[in-house]
Amino acid sequence: MNYLENIKEGFRSIKSNLLRTVLTALIISIGIMSLVGILTAIEGIKYSVSNTFSTLGANSFDIEKKWDGRGSRGGRQNKMYPNITEFQAKQYKELMQDKARVSLSAQVGNGVAVKAGSIKTNPTNSVIGGDENFLVNENYDLDLGRPFSSLEYETGAPVAIIGDEIAEKLFPKQSPEGKSIIMLGRRFKVIGKIKSQGGGMGGGGSNRLIIIPLEAATQIPTTSPLTFNIKSAILGETSLAYAMEEATGIMRKVRQDRLGQEASFEITRSDSVEQTLNKITGYLKTGGFLVGFITLLGASIGLMNIMMVSVTERTREIGIRKALGATIKQIRQQFLIEAIVICVLGGIVGILLGVLMGNGIAILIGQGEFFVPWLWMAVGMAICITVGLFSGYYPAYKASKLDPIESLRYE
């Protein structure tokens, strides 16, 4: 009896015990669906987020003052680092202008309410002052309007570029361009609207952002001095690591950090969040694989039990086959292939359901495209065959060892 005949016999046996086979294959398909579905969802979400981060420019880094927080640690008072001043930020920009495109910004207010006429937003908006490179370095595209002019930057004109959510709230069904808004006790003219970039990882993202010229930001009274943030985008073929080392040296000089003294600022690569995300998704993949594996382990035990019942029910059939000349190897192959066929049928259904489930979850959470995890589909099918071999071996071994005379007498 060759392999093809064994496969045909496996299908005949499946057809004669259809309900039992369907239930067994369903157990396998649920295990594969959980495995492929979870891993597909993780890959889809990661793909979506990676695309978002790729638009932010991986070849850049940010410089901020070091934050150790208030209070004490281990009986010692945490060190308070001074803010990065406007003079220091501009000095750094001047020294780095030939090596990178540097943008300066300052957080003017967080949780700001904005008013236009009789309409007022919730106090959930952020106001940032930015220079001429801020929009391009942060990859903010304008949906309508224009960026700030050189004169507006230099004079600190009361103009603003607002986020999509703010525009929808204050100016429903009309263009915000040229309209006036009031915030932080001052009136600003809207000259542009930022293109919506979704909710972002921190809530409102650019949708609740208001950008004003940096010079205008320095003229607004605040409860505490402004701290300036610096973003450097590397142009040309300069190595990012080399540029970061050079920026560290320049910033230490600007901040007057003495030799051997801890730096009073932090440099963060723009892709560091994506690197952290990759680590987290790695852990999630491991967890998802373990969940699927445990489900499949239970399914394999169920399949083994079904195959043992099948051997018992077909004892007389096995005796007839042996009497007609079937060898131990052929009997073993018959039951092994039958178990593998059941697993493969369940696996195909599980993979299809897993891909649909995983992409559904990924689309609900992010904005990813339909993702086909060919690797995990292949892994799922390999696991199905392995489960079939594992579950079918002992029943096949038991069937092959049955005595033909005793088997023919079995009722």
UniProtKB/TrEMBL annotation:
InterPro entries: ABC3_permease_C (IPR003838), MacB_PCD (IPR025857), Macrolide_Exporter_MacB (IPR050250). Keywords: Cell membrane, Membrane, Transmembrane, Transmembrane helix. It is a multi-pass membrane protein. The keyword Transmembrane applies. GO terms for molecular function: transmembrane transporter activity. The chain crosses the membrane at residues 21-42, 289-312, 339-365, 371-394. Its main location: membrane. Residues 21-219 form the MacB-like periplasmic core domain. Belongs to the ABC-4 integral membrane protein family. This is ABC transporter. It comes from Rufibacter radiotolerans.
